[in-house]
């Protein structure tokens, strides 16, 4: 039995405690990822035009990384679902995120790009086809998961890529190979995010958030990708009614669903005036402007598991999902 097949089998036997246990290991996994990024050859270089791709959760991490890299002034960076990649567009490097290393759309894309553009893949399993499909592969095997629903690998892959950008706090040396950046004042290091994630693992979740009937996640810039991922976790694990939008788009329609018993959760900076509008509509606002958004995503992961269990669902056995999507020829 292959490692991937074994993972499918073990996931079918696990309980919700398995997902919770994997969520709890993220701070340590992020720290290890930051160290691994420092010695990895194959990350995008400053000035390169880059595309990042994946499917599902991996696509949302690609969106977050692309926005962060471009905001740091390191080069134009786009993100696409693997099935929607623009074949005729030219890039200096394409980065693919695939936990299983077997996702059909990702492998097909890497095959189409071979010999035309350098490719880098992030995965967990060195015994899968992605090892030969990409030119460079970062194997984050310590972040592998038994769970169908991604938590640890997704955030660890993002932490790896984030650390690979260097010091983003103010354009100072200190990243891999002494890289410098244009700087994003106030952005914390991966190590600092890991410390905050440890707190996010222990803080009680507010009762109003646990008992809500609907959740809308918002983000700006790179945190929009995290908002998409938070909403997806709630849908996957708990079958919940969740939505996600760029924070400034909230007032352009999505605010219509805001009401008592419904949550508006902002990852990252809180747009001016938004708190008052949520309150006026009777909704519950969750906002931690000073917290690292990646650590705040950990809170949303915990919420997804808790809501699933409160509804009698097993987040380790999400409806209609498998650990990897492998399409028939």
Sheet with most strands: strand arrangement: 2-1-3-4-5
Q: How far do the termini sit from each other?
A: 22 Å
Q: Give me the number of helical elements.
A: 12
**What proportion of the residues is helical, as a percent range?**
40-55%
The mean pLDDT is 89
Coarse morphology: globular
Using only C-alpha atoms, the radius of gyration works out to 19 Å
Strand residue content: 5-15%
Note poorly predicted spans.
Answer: 1-15, 171-181
Beta strand count: 9
Q: Determine the structural class based on helices, strands and strand pairing.
A: alpha/beta
Largest sheet: 5 strands, parallel
Order of helices and strands: HHHEHEEHEHEHHHEHEEHEH
Describe this entry's structure for a reader.
This protein is an alpha/beta fold. The protein starts with a helix and ends in a 19-residue tail after the last helix. The N terminus is likely disordered.
Task: Describe the protein's topology.
Blueprint: H1 3-13, H2 16-24, H3 26-38, E1 50-54, H4 57-71, E2 77-81, E3 93-97, H5 104-113, E4 119-123, H6 130-133, E5 136-139, H7 152-164, H8 190-200, H9 207-210, E6 214-219, H10 223-238, E7 242-246, E8 262-267, H11 274-281, E9 284-287, H12 293-310
